[in-house]
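During the no-cost extension, the postdoctoral fellow (Dr. R.K.) reprocessed legacy sequence entries with the updated structure-token encoder. One reprocessed record is reproduced below for audit purposes.
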Amino acid sequence: MRRWLCGGAILMLLLIAGVRRWLVYLSSPQRVARQFLAAIERKDVDGVYALTMEKEKREMGVTKEVISRVLHDILYRRVSHIKVIPTPLTEFDGPRADNWYRLQHVTWGDASTDKPLPSKSENGMLRISVDLFRSPEGRWEVSFTCLASSYIIKNITKPMLEKPTVQNVLMLRRYRRALLQQWGIKTDLPEPAIVIDKGHRIALLGTKAYDPLSRYEEGGRRP
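Re-encoded structure tokens follow.
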């Protein structure tokens, strides 16, 4: 009887641990990222919109029409069926803060050939970044403006930057913002500052990270 009770207790503990791990997975940024990327693969604009940050919908002009326009221009017009091409994670993938998770390099390819889509990026493959932020209510949401901006940076403006002077960088920033506005995006979510609070790294969405070039943009100073 004692052996049976001990075995039952161990089984119960394993079951509880399994349920906890499943609940953590259900609320994890990795799961939301997979749902988001799967929605893009299916060309499910409603699904992409549902996982997009509410802040961007309210303040930055992200609508279903904008999402459809952006995804058509960067992906859907290239091939009939797209897919994420698995690539190894890097040191830049994963949590940036307790409320910020990033997939640094998401590679897109042709589903019929499993080959990456060509690009002018440094490795010749079309890549974007996916950033997720946890809302005050505890829900992980995807920044669609960061996705659109990362596409421009990785595949358009960075390859154009032959000499990384201040003037050239500022010029390409203005070009990136102009492209975003052509899509209907008012502005992109700036990279947030991070603070340490009681041992936790917290991304402050209302505060920009330090940018040494901002003094030239905001103050109109010449570099």
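The chain is about 45% helix and 20% strand. The first strand starts at residue 82 and ends at 85. The remaining legacy entries will be reprocessed before the final report is submitted.
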